[in-house]
Amino acid sequence: MSLSDLAIRHATPKHKPFKLSDTEGLFLDVRPTGKKIWRLKYYFLGNERLYTIGNYPSINLVKAREKRDELKSILADGKNPAEIKAEQKRLVIFHNAQTFQVVAEEWHNRKLDTWTQAYAKTILFRLQMNVFPYFGDRRISTITIQDIIHCLHKIEDRKAYDLAKRVLHIIGQVLRYAVITGRAERDVTPDLRGALKRHKSGHYACISPEEIPDFLKALNSNNARLYRQTVLAIRLLMLTFVRTKELIEATWDEFDFDRKIWTIPPERMKMRRQHEVPLSRQVIEILQDLKNMFPTRQYILPSIINAKKPISNNTILKALESMGYKGRMTGHGFRALAMSTIKENFNYRHEVIDRQLAHLPSNKVDQAYDRAQFMPQRTQMMQDWADYVDKIVKD
Q: Looking only at Cα atoms, what is the longest distance across the chain?
């Protein structure tokens, strides 16, 4: 006989559990505690199975029968309702565990083979400091535009406008990875176009070519009492006009003194392309001086504190500040200084200077077809530049 709602309401608990049967395997399991649970007994592949539908009165008799019919339909398709339920539960647990931080760290780990160690460290640091505190513990599929905007505005409040753009790009990469791996529906970051403050970034501080004599006089007099190693580092930066990081992390195995070439490997270059720097006579003299100072060191500019590491990224900047050039000159400024001075005083094509600065051609077509390195012209240009600087000192 089928159950009635009245019989269910009047069912009182006993010392042991008992059943109130309905039809087609549906029954109400009445527990000694008074709890009433809907269950369905069914057979799958010849074995008796039990499926828990839910508690009464949250699920009344009508809903219990509807669920029974739904489960019978699944059985008719040759599927086991209990296995489907277990899989759904597993998926819910899995997706609830897929927080932004979990997915971001997984994405970061998968990228390690394609990044330099320093770049990977920077990306993780930006996530840890600027994103995880705001929604790192949130399910990634629930991250909204408002969550991201709030995070980015906190960065902008610190006047770190360029960082805000970079963080937005990182968030977008993580969300796209989540979409690809089935843990988010879409990447919402394209909808944030125009949401960040417009900020005109300034150029690196750089003295004018006319100020070179005074600068060299200050460097040579060394009233700032800089370490000799630091003075030589500044001279190298001026004569080679590479990026500061490219210089301070240089190792002796990158230099070929027979060919007079310094080869910077791709992993240390901004554009991830090997770069060759012709060595002028003056640069070789400085390198020999450094070699005499640190004959057994790996780095050409080892740290005074820890000889196994290079000098810090701020060493050059702090030295320039000590010389009285705070806000007027930076390590990166030597690149602009050399470029502008060479253009004004020497007859070299713009492409030759660009290659020496390791700049890519301005468009993708030129990048694909213009692979000229202009090494003979660059070699002569670097010697001309070093001689020019020498002449200024003597004058």
A: 115
